[in-house]
Amino acid sequence: MPAVSLSPVFNAWQGFSDSGIPLSGGLLYTYLAGSTTPVATYTTSAGNIANSNPIVLSAGGRPPNEIWLARGTSYKFALQDALANPIATYDNIAAAAASEIFTATQGQTVFNTAGTYASGTLLVSLNGAVQVFGVDYTDAPTAITMATGLNAGDVLYVRFPA
Asked: 129-150 burial, b if ≥16 CB within 10 A, otherwise e?
């Protein structure tokens, strides 16, 4: 299963024809960016169930499921009406950056991440601060270690590169 992030496009979206009618039965194809090579999107944050390709829009012109993208993959979306007439193409769409939120226990210093990421590329904030700088923490591919123990209930927000 790939690590996935929510697509920045076509979620909570409703398509309409030029005459304002919902794009019932519209088709949303997903390809590798810059190509016509089909590539999977996923229905959940677990990345374990692929959407159909094309994704067939509901009677209301909406995707039937959420659209999650594999991190590290750039996509091209091609939108067509129900008769396969092209409407629009959107290229070089990448997954949004991943993030995790941790609530500390008293004195906690180590926070294990759910994924594996490149060290030194994290944005880390504590209790809403803009950023906790690198002198306050170190990171490894699967964990963040704080220089000092946190208080119970402190909230550590970590944003990973896409």
From this structure: eeebeeeebebeeeebebeeeb
